[in-house]
Amino acid sequence: MAVDKEKLPVHIGFIMDGNGRWALKRGLPRKMGHREGAKAFRKIARYCKDIGIKYITFYAFSTENWKRPKEEIDEIMRLFGEYLDEAEDFRKDRTRLLFLGDKSAFDEKLRNRMTELEEASAEFDQMTLMLAMNYGGRDEIVRAAERAAEMVLNKEIKLSDIDEKLLGSLMYTGGIPDADLIIRPSGEKRISNFLTWQSAYSELYFTDVLWPDFTSKELDKALEDYASRSRRFGGV
Ligand code: IPE
Ligand code: IPE
Ligand code: MG
Q1: Nearest-5° Cα angle at 16, 14 to 22
Q2: Could you give the residue numbers annotated as active site?
Q3: In the chain, N or C: fewer CB atoms in 10 Å?
């Protein structure tokens, strides 16, 4: 990795897209693409840890992905369960695990395991790995707004206390810095409801590579590109 440490993003978001097309290209069922995608996820997470990225978020399943065929959803949930069962490295890596999204949609076993992992890793600060599952950026903002309204009704806060800082703290990512860089493979140039609130000033990187083919070399390219950008945040 050729990039200066100071020029690395603090928080990278990955939109893990292109699994289906990867499989289709090989004449395989879409679920095989998700299996390969899960392998790429593990490799990229490890690489990010090795090069010292502090926060990584992987978009694995959106609030809109329920529209897919049941067989495909079942395979994604199976892979998710498999990851949750195996996720033990976080202890030696001192990695905090967080699941962004509405957990109520998952079965009890998955829900309990997600909570267990979040609780067991809550004190770790070497790195934070976030997996966005049943996540939608708009859904997240609606929930934060509801929570803020409830706080006003309960007289915990005044209406005038609602500001960007308060709403930000009510997002699933409360306390986590905004995404510096969002990477989307697969050739699509859109955000698809990912980190809507947290991407206000994110740098965007798009590549035609499909997610299962996304390697540490591809990530290096994105990091080099990111390092060359001038982030002004509205200033000069
Ligand atoms: C991304 O890959 C994974 C999920 C959305 C769960 P896709 O399954 O969207 O792959 P393409 O876009 O059809 O190639
Ligand atoms: C975005 O990919 C969601 C995830 C990668 C989890 P999609 O494949 O669902 O996005 P669209 O439909 O192409 O916008
Ligand atoms: Mg897709």
Answers
A1: 145
A2: 17, 65
A3: C
Domain boundaries, the chain: 7-138+176-226
pLDDT digits (tens, 9 = 90+) for 193-205: 999 999 999 999 9
pLDDT tens figures, 121-173:
999 999 999 999 999 999 999 999 999 999 999 999 999 999 999 999 999 99
Ligand 2 centre to CA of 47 (Å) is 23
Which atom of ligand 1 sits closest to the CA of residue 15?
Answer: 1
Residue 3 per-residue DSSP state: S
Q: Does domain 7-138+176-226 have CATH number 3.40.50.720?
A: no
- Ligand 2 binding pocket (C-beta < 6 A) is 15-17, 59-62, 65, 188, 190, 192
Split at pLDDT 50, 70, 90, the class of 1 is confident
Measure 137 CA to ligand 2 centroid, in angstroms. Answer: 13
Residue nearest to atom 10 of ligand 2 (CA): 192
Question: Residues lining ligand 3 (ion), CB within 5 A?
Answer: 17
Question: How far does the centroid of ligand 1 lie from the alpha carbon of residue 19, in Å?
Answer: 5
Whole-angstrom distance, CA of residue 154 vs CA of residue 146: 12
Distance separating alpha carbons of residues 88 and 68, to the nearest angstrom = 30
Ligand 1 atom 12, closest CA: 18
First-to-last C-alpha distance (Å) of the chain = 30
Distances 101 to 139, 173, 201 between C-alpha atoms, Å: 9, 10, 21
pLDDT at site 134: 98
